[in-house]
Design goal:
There is one protein chain. By secondary structure, the protein is an alpha+beta fold. About 50% of the residues lie in helices and about 20% in strands. The strands form seven sheets. Strands 5, 6, 13, 14, 15, 16, 17, 18 and 19 form a nine-stranded antiparallel sheet that branches. An eight-stranded antiparallel sheet has the order 4-1-3-2-27-28-20-29. Helix 29 runs antiparallel to helix 30. The protein is elongated and about 130 Å long.
């Protein structure tokens, strides 16, 4: 087949051009993202029980839903939050790759089964099921820069004119409003006037429900009608009301004797107010409403950001005067910058590889042939990536950067061998044929080994498997195309264009060749001496293995490196029960510190919102410190450095805990960087006991050197000030009272009650009852509330029971159905996340009482799962490599010789990581797997040629020496091409630099050491093992002769 292409260079070139054109087309079709789809699919179930406490919500809403949802197919774990604002939020995480639509349908069916167990008011307000990534992709703020538009109008403009258009955009999973003041018809009750008039809160509820209704008036003249009826005319009846005046006219009571009426405005203040007043948002100190855009699973983040930006620019053309928007938080900025840097790194690597090839081949025409293999192989790879549903992401592009040094290898081997045959005096056609006879076997063998290393890795499950998948297959596909090109295009072009050139004209090249000639012959002569010192070499080899193991044990590990993503979070927590006003004061002080920090571009604050539990809490806030672009910040203003710089100032803010966190390495795996640790109460003890156990664990863990004490905390608390209403039920019944009326009265006055709806601006809004501000400011206001008994008498609530001060949780969290407390933390400087995880587990086992346990969640859960998978990945690579070689050469000893080079590569990789103070992470683990194939590739080139020379009659040592001499040049060419190709990764800067440095350092150190030591150890191992094998099989040694002295 190879002769066919040698004689038809145009045919071979046409195939390469077709591959390149197809890849170029697919480039524009491939989506772009930071990572492959590695985030576990998540379904969010949300419900609301207005006025209910966290405990009531947990008992009556969350628990019935959890009991039905638990065990849904594909579920990894389930977390829930029940809050004092009456909200219930359950997040179900599924295995990576589980169909999100199937998961949503399964959860919907389970929720339907729980509907009958939920309170009627919860069913009335509705239980929602949504599929989404639980982290924002884009935050858009809307405000009035000149204060010419009141904030309520700004907020409702966002709700009426912007929210729905954004929700309709492709790729949007959800859009939520933070700090909004959505309209609600607020009926602020005056309990004193109501008591004087003998009207109860339940009376008002019933009358509004009766009189604010949608009615169908019918038609005059509707068929069947008398003959000659000329028209049909619609009857419009004022049923549903629409403005405060109409609600104020509602008749609560009419005296049929006197005709006197009591209207709603007589006992209440009615206004077009806001549904919620529980949070506030600022952007650079300006009150704003924020639209949080969530990405839909499987969508393209960059496309989503672009669509949101385009839509906002379009909508802003219609903004009323005095309203402006800012896209102040954009996670895709990092993706765009990182992808740009990776592409630049790819071009740098390409230039360095071409330079190395030119230095060795010393001829532009000769250099072009292996250079052509690079774009053809890489661009053709895009076709298969598109067919496999891949994206252009950090991992697939890193695979292409590393593949540059691989795809050029086979072409270098072909061209170098053709040139050697031309120097021996053969004409181009014959030289190409003979060269291909020698190198076809090694090319196929090395390609098979690389495919055997990478392809099995692609089928590993979980997040780690998804991270390996696209990298591994990208490299494998490019290597396969490279082998195809080296057996078709490269020999065709070599036969057509290569000619014997004689001595090079440039003195530099002649000096290089003279030195290399002396090096190769001196190297070949040293092999025999090294064989005589075999035992010393074996001792050195064992020392290398021991050093590799020692470095493996000493090098810390983590899941993913901490990247500068262009922003960091600040989490604010005040004492339990702190008002929204107090939290806003602390947030303003924190914002001043952040905005005064060099490198910070702008700051957004969401007050009254717990970012870690996604629950409304008056004593919590979160801030987003968005940094200037990477090229506008010096290295010392990296995100982690700025976060560490502001931490001491934030910790000095009185009356609050203010902590800064890095964002998670993968969006959707946790709210912040660091670890997430769940303490679980298996025995059903009190929330207070769970809180005490959690705080004791935190206090002990802060003493551990592996854990950063300033970033270890839990927002779970059971000391939120509360009141218990101790109702005397016997007395209530003796007085003829209806218990639901008592509890409804409490809810209406002190909580709020959604009665029904009204229409405004073409939308439906809620009618809400609640006591006016002055009537619910203290516990003594209970004496102002009355209910009516069966005899029509008004009974004050303070005679039926009293408020007793107590404490309780602001939110109640469950993890996998058990009451739990979430602990957030991070490793101390100089320690890895794996060391921090081990320290937390050690402390938890000795500190937690009986009936308590712990589990990891978020990115830490995936890190622990990936830890066991890493060893499996490496073992699989070795096993498949060994079996492929054994099958190809029908030998058990040859694969063993080849794989002896792998520990040498690992020694170099671990040494490089250790010298640079870096950790073992997913990227370096990918590098380890890659080094298995790279180290084996060099060993195959030597052993394959040694085997051929042995079959031709050379003795074992002479065959090893000649193979080492003949293969030294292509081995060094390919090694230097690869090593210099990854050099830009080692010293990468900007967005995504940490991941590029990790994999670049790993493969640079591994390839450098493996190349040097493989040239020493592999020929000796071949000679010794082959002598031992032949001795066992009594195989004759063969004819003795010296290796040829000439090239």
């Amino acid at each position: 087949m190879i002769d066919f292409f040698i004689h038809r260079p145009i045919f071979a070139s046409a195939i390469a051009i077709i591959m390149t054109l197809a890849g170029g087309i697919c480039y524009f079709l491939l989506p772009i993202s930071q990572f492959p789809d590695v985030t576990p699919p998540q379904i969010v179930v949300a419900a609301n029980y207005p006025g209910a406490s966290a405990q009531v919500v947990a008992d009556t809403v969350t628990t019935p839903l959890e009991q039905q949802i638990n065990g849904v197919p594909g579920m990894l774990y389930m977390t829930s939050t029940s809050s004092n604002d009456g909200s219930s939020r359950i997040i179900i995480s599924f295995e990576v790759g589980y169909p999100i639509d199937v998961a949503a349908l399964d959860v919907q069916n389970r929720v339907s089964q729980a509907a009958s167990s939920l309170p009627a008011l919860v069913n009335q307000t509705g239980v929602t099921i949504a599929k989404q990534i639980p982290n924002f992709t884009v935050l858009v703020s809307l405000d009035s820069p000149d204060n010419s538009v009141d904030f309520a109008s700004v907020s409702n403009y966002a709700y009426l004119q912007i929210l729905d258009p954004l929700k309709r955009l492709p790729g949007v999973g959800d859009v939520q409003l933070f700090g909004e003041r959505r309209y609600s018809m607020r009926v602020w009750l005056d309990p004193d006037r109501m008591a004087n008039l003998g009207i109860t809160a339940v009376d008002v509820q019933n009358v509004i429900a009766e009189q604010n209704i949608q009615v169908a008036g019918g038609k005059i003249g509707q068929s069947p009608a008398p003959a000659g009826t000329p028209f049909e005319m619609q009857i419009n009846a004022l049923g549903r009301l629409s403005d405060p005046a109409q609600f104020g006219d509602i008749v609560l009571r009419a005296d049929q004797t006197t005709g006197a009426t009591t209207r709603l405005r007589d006992v209440a203040r009615i206004e077009l107010g806001a549904l919620l007043y529980s949070s506030s948002v600022t952007f650079n100190g300006k009150e704003s409403v924020v639209l949080a855009v969530f990405q839909a699973p499987g969508s393209n983040a960059l496309d989503l950001q672009s669509r949101v930006q385009t839509k906002m620019d379009e909508l802003s053309q219609r903004f009323p005067a005095g309203i402006a928007y800012h896209m102040f938080y954009d996670t895709t900025r990092f993706v765009s910058a990182a992808m740009k840097d990776v592409v630049f790194t790819l071009l740098e690597a390409l230039a360095l590889v071409v330079f190395v090839v030119f230095i060795f081949l010393q001829n532009l025409r000769t250099t072009i042939i292996p250079t052509i293999a690079i774009p053809v192989s890489l661009i053709a790879t895009l076709v298969v990536m598109y067919l496999f549903g891949f994206s252009l992401n950090m991992l697939s592009l890193l695979g292409m950067v590393l593949a540059i040094g691989l795809v050029v290898d086979d072409a270098i081997v072909v061209v170098e061998n053709v040139e050697r045959q031309l120097e021996a005096g053969l004409p181009p056609l014959a030289a190409t044929r003979k060269a291909m006879q020698e190198v076809t076997g090694p090319i196929i063998a090395t390609t098979a080994v690389l495919l055997a290393v990478f392809i099995p890795v692609a089928f590993i499950p979980g997040v780690a498997g998804s991270l390996y998948n696209q990298f591994a297959l990208t490299v494998a596909i490019s290597v396969a195309f490279s082998a195809f090109n080296s057996l078709t295009l490269s020999p065709a072009l070599s036969a057509a264009f290569l000619r014997y050139r004689g001595e090079p004209r440039f003195a530099l090249f002649r000096w290089f060749n003279t030195g290399f000639h002396a090096l190769s012959h001196g190297y070949a002569r040293s092999i025999a001496g090294l064989v005589r010192w075999r035992w010393a070499l074996f001792a050195l080899f064992l020392l290398a293995i021991g050093s590799t193991y020692a470095l493996w044990q000493r090098t810390p590990s983590t899941f993913l490196p901490v990247e500068d993503q262009g922003y960091f979070f600040v989490v604010i927590q005040l004492p339990d029960g702190a008002s929204l006003e107090r939290t806003e004061t602390v947030a303003r002080r924190s914002e001043e510190i952040l905005r005064g920090t060099a490198g910070v571009d702008f700051v957004g604050s969401v007050v009254g919102f717990n970012f870690l539990s996604f629950a409304a809490q008056s004593n919590s806030a979160v801030q987003f410190a968005v940094l200037k672009p990477w090229d506008e910040r010096p290295p010392e203003q990296g995100a982690s450095a700025l976060r560490e710089a502001v931490t001491p100032q934030l910790l000095q803010i009185p009356d609050a805990l203010v902590l800064a966190f890095d964002p998670p390495s993968i969006q959707g795996l946790g709210a912040t960087g660091g670890f997430e640790f769940q303490v679980e109460d298996l025995g059903g003890r009190s929330a207070q006991a769970l809180g005490d156990a959690t705080q004791a664990l935190i206090a002990e863990a802060r003493k551990q050197p592996e854990i950063n004490p300033y970033q270890l905390f839990s927002t779970f608390s059971t000391s939120s000030p509360q009141f218990d209403y101790d109702l005397d039920r016997d007395k209530a019944k003796l007085l003829g009272l209806n218990l639901p009326d008592i509890f409804n009265t409490l809810q209406i006055y002190f909580g709020s009650l959604y009665v029904n709806d009204f229409n405004l601006f073409g939308r439906t809004f809620r009618v809400t009852l609640q006591a006016d501000q002055g009537a619910r400011a203290s516990a003594t206001d209970l004496s102002r509330l009355y209910v009516r008994n069966a005899a029509g008498e008004m009974v004050p609530l303070n005679t039926l029971g009293s408020f007793k001060p107590t404490v309780g949780p602001e939110t109640i969290t469950h993890y996998n159905n058990y009451p739990s407390a979430l602990i957030n933390g991070a490793a101390a400087p100089g320690f890895s996340s794996s060391q921090a995880v081990a320290a937390m587990e050690r402390v938890a086992r000795t500190t937690l009482p009986r009936d308590y346990t712990f589990e990891w969640t978020g990115i830490t859960y995936q890190e622990i799962r990936a830890g066991s998978i890493a060893a499996l990945v490496f073992a699989l690579a070795l096993v498949f490599c060994f079996l492929i070689l054994a099958a190809q050469y029908e030998s058990w000893s040859m694969p063993f010789m080849v794989l002896l080079s792998v520990p040498l590569a690992l020694l170099g990789a671990l040494s490089a990581l250790w010298l640079r103070g870096m950790q073992i992470d997913v990227y370096s683990q990918i590098g380890f797997v890659m080094l298995v194939g790279l180290a084996a590739k060099n060993a195959i080139l030597i052993i394959e040629f040694a085997r051929r020379r042995r079959e031709e009659g050379l003795d074992v040592v002479a065959a090893a020496a000649e193979a080492a001499r003949l293969r030294l040049r292509p081995i060094l060419m390919t090694a230097f091409a690869f090593i210099l190709g990854v050099l830009p990764l080692m010293y990468a800067k900007g967005a995504g630099a940490a991941s590029r440095q990790s994999i670049g350092t790993t493969v640079f150190g591994g390839m450098l050491v493996a190349t040097v030591l493989t040239l020493i150890f592999v020929p000796v191992f071949y000679a010794v093992i082959e002598q031992w094998r032949e001795g066992l099989s009594s195989k004759p040694v063969g004819q003795q002769r010296e290796p040829e002295a000439a090239e």
